[in-house]
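Why does residue order matter? Because the sequence determines the fold. Keep that principle in mind as you read this record.
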Amino acid sequence: MTMKRFRFLTSGESHGKSLNAIIEGVPAGFRIKQEIINADLAKRQVGYGRGGRMQIENDTVEIKSGVRFGKTTGAPICLEIKNKDFSNWEDVMSVIGYDYPTEEMLRKIEEKTFTKARPGHADYAGSIKYNLSDLRDVLERSSARKTAIEVAIGSIAKQILKEFGIIGFSHVIQIGNVKLDFYPKTYTLIKEKAEKSDVFCADEMTADRMRNAINIASEEGDTLGGKFEVIFGNLPVGLGSYVHWDQCIDGRIAQAIMSIPAIKAVEIGAGVDAAHLKGSQMHDEMFVNRSKEVYRQTNNAGGVEGGMTNGEALIVKGTMKPIPTMRKSLSTVDIKDMSPSNAHFERSDVCAVPSCAIVAEARVAIILVDELLAKLGGDSLVEMKAHYGM
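Structure:
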């Protein structure tokens, strides 16, 4: 298996006390700004179509170890995001097993217990896999709420990448049937325009149509999915490898994006459009400038050839399905007695594609920083920059 340098574990539930992470492998000397992490967390929470939970939480991270006076020490980094909504769920999500629970506690637990599986969620398969009779036990960890701590981890990864001039962003290119057909001329313009939009779309007219589609879905008690793009530039040639299948960087990125809740497809570069292109149209011809530097006039490969970065911008697209928790209930089965029923509804979003884009941006940054650390080696920023020739 691939040797990892940037490793992490997360824990926590949707309505539990907190979300936590321990990150290992970050060399000493990197300046980590908590306010940048919090800004990324804020981006994940906003976006047209988000639900009531985002009105409750105001996600902020606490760095509990591994950073001193604003710089990494080489020790494991511990992060925590407290769930404000836990105050309303303290009895229901208690880690303590009570021999004699009060009637009030039993009532609260019963109110939050559900057995009607939601099609499209982890409910049914999770209940079978872990032998659980209360689907609350599945929902709490399978919820996309856990991506908040992943965005915090990704923010640290992006701050490390920035030290080497590697910068990325994400933007939305489709919600429902509304697609972005007009792209600004440069990545800088796309980034600037998308960051000013509440649907993270770089064209205001398209953004208006996206908002209208979300409004219609909301009125109908339905939900919408969509598509986003993650772009990272100024990458060195050779991150990843062709020598083993699990070291191909596009494979690692695809797995990282595909495992985000609700993602159903991942594309690199031209992606599915490659199916109808001829070889002469698809492959990016190479040229040399006066400084003997290789350049290309197209980037259908999306910055990856043979499982490695090729020096062009990395372009990754992800497709998110409509959120399966909706007011327009679907037919399902009550696992309590296997009787026909209507799906359980819990407070949810109408559309979370903009937020999913932020999560995907974090996940891509995590893979990139892991590959960069593996390639350069070193126990400190100074040593890494020396290896990088900076």
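The two ends are 30 Å apart (CA to CA).
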